Amino acid sequence: NAGVMQNPRHLVRRRGQEARLRCSPMKGHSHVYWYRQLPEEGLKFMVYLQKENIIDESGMPKERFSAEFPKEGPSILRIQQVVRGDSAAYFCASSLLTSGPTTGELFFGEGSRLTVL
Amino acid sequence: GESVGLHLPTLSVQEGDNSIINCAYSNSASDYFIWYKQESGKGPQFIIDIRSNMDKRQGQRVTVLLNKTVKHLSLQIAATQPGDSAVYFCAENHEGAQKLVFGQGTRLTINP
Known about the structure:
The complex is a heterodimer of chains A (117) and B (112). Chain A has 117 residues and is mostly beta strands. In chain A, 0% of the residues lie in helices and 48% in strands. Chain A has no helices and eleven strands. With 112 residues, chain B is mostly beta strands. Helix content of chain B is 0%, strand content 53%. The termini of chain B are far apart. Chain B is globular and about 45 Å long. In chain B, strands 2, 4, 5, 9, 10 and 11 form a six-stranded mixed beta sheet that branches. Chain B has a five-stranded antiparallel beta sheet with strand order 1-3-8-7-6, with no helix packed on it.
């Protein structure tokens, strides 16, 4: 049973470049969440998606950040024109169709660590 | 605004001792709480959860206590082992919300 798979695990970008982070949820899970973690801090919610739909993007910065979860393939978190402040660990989590944070059945991936030079 | 915070950023205990990690929350609407363990370079791992209609829940070597009167949550780890060294986060949620609010975290170090 593969868990939540994220890639790349480490990504280095120069200011102004684009970063694409991918997340494959656990098998059978159709709910995906993205969180950002700055060094020595807790995780901050960014966006919640279901297949082909963004349900809650209240934690996403208004500019440069976008997320998608297509019918086929992984969820993508895209950061355009990266700045140094975007350096962080980005975690993806997934849950079953009828459950979510209120049941504890939220499984996290190992994260993608973005470094912006 | 809502927030979840921790009293102590670091905690060191001797191997074999019990440890207690504390968490304060401010959202009175929160009705579900989770403790996560995060080892270096890894994602958060679910430890134990508790709903607001309970004040105590036990797992294997772990106990979560919830005091709704003072909006306080604690995680007790019995007979700590070297593998317990990690950062521990509390997180809260309220019915209908699909996002967790995480605290800053407490780094637990187990001394041999």
